[in-house]
Specification:
- InterPro entries: Connexin, Connexin_CCC, Connexin_CS, Connexin_N, Connexin_N_sf.
- This is Gap junction protein.
- By secondary structure, the protein is mainly α.
- The protein has a single domain, classed as Gap junction channel protein cysteine-rich domain (de novo design (two linked rop proteins), Up-down Bundle).
- The protein has eight helices and three strands.
- Strands 1-3-2 form a three-stranded antiparallel beta sheet, with helices on one face.
- A hairpin with an 8-residue loop joins strand 2 and strand 3.
C-alpha cells in the first residue's frame, strides 16, 4: 500500500489542527506507519512458512495456524491505520466545502467574504473537528479491544497447544521469533494508547477553550448591559441636579455668611 500518498493527504489537516493534533499526526506517521512499513511487515513476513507443529498429519498444521492466528497482526494494523486516519478527511472536506461556498459568495457579492477564515474552527467546523477526534479515539480503542479479544491478550506464547481435527491428538506448535513479535505488538499497543490519550487531551482542550470563550462573551454582554442601563438611568434623571436615590444637593457657592444674612432678612420681614 502507498502510505506516502495517505500521509500527504492527511498532512493537510496540520494547518487546521491544534498542538495536540500535530503531535498525534507525528505519532501516527513516525511511530506507527514507519514502524509498520519498515520493520513489522518483515517480522511477520515468514509467519505462515515458519509455523511448525510436531505432527505430519496432513492439514493439521494449517488448521492449527488458523486457530492460533485468526487474523494476521499486519492486516489488522493496516486496517487500524486506515480507519484511524480517515476521520481527518472529514475536516479537510468541510474546509474545502467552506472555501467553495465562500468563493461563490464572493463572486455574487462583489468581493465581500462569507468566512473571514474558512479553516478557523467555528460553528459547524468545530463540531466536525470534535467528531473526528471521537472517531479516531474510538477506532483505536476498538482495534485494541479486537486484538486483545482475538489473541486473549497482547502476548505471543512460544508454545501453543492444538487438538483440532484432523490432528490425531494434542500437538505442540511453535511460531517463529515470538519475542521479537511480542515486542512489536507491545510497541504498537502502547503507541495506539498514546494516540488515544492525545485525542482525549485535544477534546478536553477544545471543550475548555469553547467554554472559556462563551463565558468571556457572557461577561462582556453583562458589562455592556450594565453600561447601557446606567446610561439610561443618567439620561432619565431630573435636570435640576437630582439623581435617583441620592441626597439633596446644596449649592457649594453659598457660604455660611450668606446663609446668616438670608436668615436675618427672613426674620426682619416677619417683624
Amino acid at each position: 500500500m502507498n502510505w506516502s500518498a495517505l500521509e500527504a493527504l492527511i498532512s493537510g489537516v496540520n494547518k487546521y489542527s491544534t498542538v495536540f493534533g500535530r503531535v498525534w499526526l507525528s505519532m501516527v506517521f513516525v511511530f506507527r506507519v514507519m514502524v509498520f512499513v519498515v520493520a513489522a511487515q518483515r517480522v511477520w513476513g515468514d509467519d505462515s512458512k515458519d509455523f511448525v507443529c510436531n505432527t505430519a498429519q496432513p492439514g493439521c498444521r494449517n488448521v492449527c495456524y488458523d486457530h492460533i492466528f485468526p487474523i494476521s497482526h499486519i492486516r489488522l494494523w493496516a486496517l487500524q491505520l486506515i480507519f484511524v486516519t480517515c476521520p481527518s478527511l472529514m475536516v479537510v472536506g468541510h474546509v474545502k466545502y467552506r472555501e467553495k461556498k465562500d468563493l461563490k459568495y464572493t463572486t455574487s457579492h462583489k468581493g465581500s467574504h462569507l468566512y473571514a477564515n474558512p479553516g478557523k474552527k467555528r460553528g459547524g467546523l468545530w463540531w466536525t473537528y470534535l467528531t473526528s477526534l471521537i472517531f479516531k479515539a474510538g477506532f483505536d480503542a476498538g482495534f485494541l479491544y479486537i486484538l486483545y479479544h482475538v489473541y486473549e491478550g497482547y502476548d505471543l506464547p512460544r508454545l501453543s497447544k492444538c487438538n483440532l481435527p484432523p490432528c490425531p491428538n494434542t500437538v505442540d506448535c511453535y511460531i517463529s521469533r515470538p519475542t521479537e513479535k511480542r515486542i512489536f505488538t507491545l510497541f504498537m499497543v502502547v503507541s495506539s494508547a498514546v494516540c488515544i490519550f492525545m485525542c482525549i487531551c485535544e477534546m478536553v482542550y477544545l471543550i475548555c477553550k469553547r467554554i472559556q470563550k462563551l463565558l468571556r462573551k457572557k461577561v462582556q454582554a453583562d458589562r455592556r448591559m450594565f453600561a447601557e442601563t446606567h446610561e439610561m438611568a443618567l439620561l432619565s434623571a431630573p435636570r435640576s441636579g437630582f439623581r435617583p436615590n441620592s441626597p439633596i444637593r446644596v449649592d457649594p457657592t453659598i457660604s455660611i455668611q450668606n446663609l446668616a444674612n438670608i436668615k436675618a432678612e427672613e426674620v426682619a420681614e416677619k417683624k
